[in-house]
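Shall we go through a protein fold together, starting from nothing but its sequence? Label the sequence line and the structure token line clearly, so we can match residues to local backbone shapes. Would you write everything just below, so we can both look at the same thing?
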Amino acid sequence: MAVVVHQLEHSPYCIPITAALRALGVRFRTVQVSYGDRTPIFRLTQGRYHQVPVLVDGKVVVYESAADTLDVARHVDRRWGGGRLFPAEHEGVQRIVVAHLENEVEGTTFRLVDPKFSDTVTADRERMFLVRFKERKFGRGCLETWRRQAPELRAQAEALLTPYDLMLQAHPFLLGAAPVYADFALYGIVGNLTYRGINRLPAKLKALRAWVPRIEAFRYAR
């Protein structure tokens, strides 16, 4: 059956899904979602959802049922991961870590990305809807505010990422010898932050920087 991920390529919520699928050896294709036309997403979800990622697994369409769910990731784990993304012994700590990554960390790092990313969106309709979405959620002129705040935001991002660097000094991956979903969630943050060279990881976070090619190359045994 065809596996399709409807995504925004730089999204810190889409990157973990495609990275986990690759690590699990799942063949899939991606479809880039338009900022200006979410009609395909509305059709797939029967009008229930407009965000990304949306995973199509044959006749099954999977998307998040609430703001703090991991429905797509847990489907990937049930379908192909055999519990390796969400091992029972790490369930508690993963809930804490992933929530921290998707809220506190991402809440800072995306502000370092979006102003420069918006500069690369040259199609008028796409740029209009991108800016409109950001300003409706965060206030008029938010992109320029974040651009001015970049030095402070970089310091905040480094502080927020430092505990993960410390964890990776002790293990190849966050919780041990093999990655769990928290690793892919962290990779989503890093992938978004460094998308197209917009930002670089802080030089002092050496363990985190060394982990990036490790998580990119990792493949689970079949």
User: Anything to note?
Assistant: The beta strands are 3-7, 29-32, 54-57, 60-62. DSSP finds nine helices and four strands in the chain. The mean pLDDT is 97.
